[in-house]
Amino acid sequence: MLFNIVEQIRNWLTFCFKTLSSLPWAFRYRWETVKNGYVSGNQALPMVMIASMFISMVLALEWGKKLEPFGAKLMLGRMVSISVIREIGPIITGLMVAGRTGAKIVSEIGNMVLSEQIDALRAFGIDPIRRLIVPRVFASIFVMIPLTIMADTMGIIAGWFGSVVWMGIDSEFFWLSMRDGLFVKDLVIGVLKPPFYGLVIGLIAGYFGYTIQGGAEGMGKAATRTVMYASLGVLFIDFLLTKIILAMY
């Protein structure tokens, strides 16, 4: 059991090295990269926006109720905006993309492996990693920032709506509190994390799709493992980057 786990980790790291060293080929196959980014971004956008909106409204309600006894409800704008931009927007985007785009990548690559299209590419002298994996990994990286910006925008609007309608906060005070509480470093942190989430998602999904075995049953196992490990990978990277950033500041 332990040997199998170590072997899987070693194989994945080898796959990651090959993929990362081939990333410049994303510009060679730029149309494939752009197409994957466009399709993946459009498919994940509704889920990302809806999830961010509901989480932000819950956040406004929870913090509003906690702050109300202390007469500090006017801090809601600051707390909601910082929480959404630094943590909720990026992490919700990462988890939604891990589920939606991760499953898409593993199913596409896995189908090509099972239908022997990968072997056909090798027969023609084409590297499957450069032709198929790299564009999808690169696309999963660059779609994360636009998706996160949309998630942040909708999350803040939803938080404003919940604060004004259900907590009775004056709309102008909400935006003033947000303006006074946000700093440039908050925005930098908010856009620094998502590309790393996209990289981890693309590498995990690409690996399980590329190494799939066992037909339809193997496809189901690969999709399940992709969503599970990609989600855990997003949470781990979030913790790691947060620890590093806080240590720097």
Outline the structure in words.
- The chain is 87% helix and 0% strand.
- The protein is built from ten helices and no strands.
- The longest helix has 39 residues, at 76-114.
Helix content: over 70%
Number of helices: 10
Strand fraction equals: under 5%
The chain-level structural class is: mainly alpha
SSE topology sketch:
Layout: H1 2-21, H2 25-28, H3 30-67, H4 76-114, H5 117-123, H6 128-142, H7 144-165, H8 171-181, H9 184-210, H10 215-248
Helix pairs in contact: 3-4, 3-6, 3-7, 4-6, 4-7, 4-8, 4-9, 4-10, 6-9, 7-9, 9-10
In brief, what are we looking at here?
87% of the residues lie in helices and 0% in strands. By secondary structure, the chain is mainly alpha-helical.
List keywords for this structure.
mainly alpha; 87% helix; 0% strand; elongated
